[in-house]
Amino acid sequence: MIALARKTLAYEWRRFVPSVFAVGFAGVLLVMQAALVLGIFSTAAIYVSATSADLWIGYPGTQSVNFGRNIGPDVEMRLRMDADIAAVEPYVWVDGDWRARSAVAQAVGGVSIYLSGISTASDAMMFDRVLAPWQRRLLREPGAVIVDRADLPTLASAEGGAAWINNHPVRIVAAVDGLRGLGGVNVIASLESAREISEQSASHGSTYLVARVRKGADVEAVGARLNRGGASFGPHEAWTAQAFAHRSQLYWMFDTGAGAGVLFMAIVVCLVGAVVTSQSLKTVVTGSAREYAVLNALGVSRGALGRVVVEQALWIGGLGLLLAALASLGLMSVARVYRVPVALNGQAMLGCAVLIAVLALLSGIGAMRGLLRADPATLLR
């Protein structure tokens, strides 16, 4: 009887095409929603993921990168005293107001930005996965800044253009990709420029310290050691880069209205996909009621017919999954061209595949109720 399911799919494929497209449509909705959720909230931790540092040290209890508070300059001394710390550098965060020097800017008005003050040393860690060495050297010019290429229209500026941040003149020396963040426009400057704009000297400390541990050292153990004692150096807390990125993403995902809205949309998409898939399979089974009635009259049990329906549902789910994968690849390519934040990892893809398979299986089981209509008496009507 199982062979019957495959042969039915092969010889009557036109009847099953709508179901395959329904599953594929549900799969595309699910995959793209997952990609958008991961893409949007991964930008909340772009400062961490674009940096090669192993440890982040900031003010105790910081919920997200953008909520950093200054830590004292003595904390850097404590890190440099640790035998497992190979390199330390400060990172200054400044909330700023951008005003461009153009007629267009007057129409746009001020733009809220996040100014990152970083080291311009050739071996610096901050944003070393986004900035090329020559771009970092450009920041040594007083007032030089780097922005994301996609944010130039928002800033009403162009590469090489001039603007003001908190009434301090700056110049865009380069535009790069991969700096777009959540909640504001990211602007990168040197530590010196950022401190001049914030009007705070180095004696006030920095928002964060990032550190690289010695090769072979246990990063988590070093972070835990830094969190024990050391109160005399001033309040501070150390996180591994992975933990701090995860912490920032969870904050934006679960503790903000934006995160709750996106997650709610993801649940709605799952429900819509389940309903569409289920109804499509039910239509197929209902349309085959007379054929099932014939088989039932010939002595085929309802259990065997049910297994046929379930196998058909799994085949439809597999084909729909393949269709969804191809369509999603195309859509994600288009999204990347237009710099829409999308991201997928192995766990998300596996989760989507399992969910689509479960949807198809449950829909097949639900459609089995159509077999109750497969009464041989229907042949006489």
From TrEMBL:
Occurrences of domain ABC3 transporter permease C-terminal (ranges): 264-376
Alphabetic keyword roster: Cell membrane, Membrane, Transmembrane, Transmembrane helix, Transport
Principal localisation: membrane
Membrane topology: Multi-pass membrane protein
Entry's transmembrane regions: 20-48, 250-276, 313-338, 350-372
Keyword RNA-binding tagged: no
Protein location: Cell membrane
Recorded GO CC terms: plasma membrane
InterPro entries according to UniProt: ABC-4/HrtB_transporter, ABC3_permease_C
PANTHER family given in the database record: ABC TRANSPORTER, MEMBRANE PROTEIN (PTHR43738), HEMIN TRANSPORT SYSTEM PERMEASE PROTEIN HRTB-RELATED (PTHR43738:SF1)
The name this protein goes by in its record: ABC transporter permease
Source organism of the structure: Diaphorobacter ruginosibacter
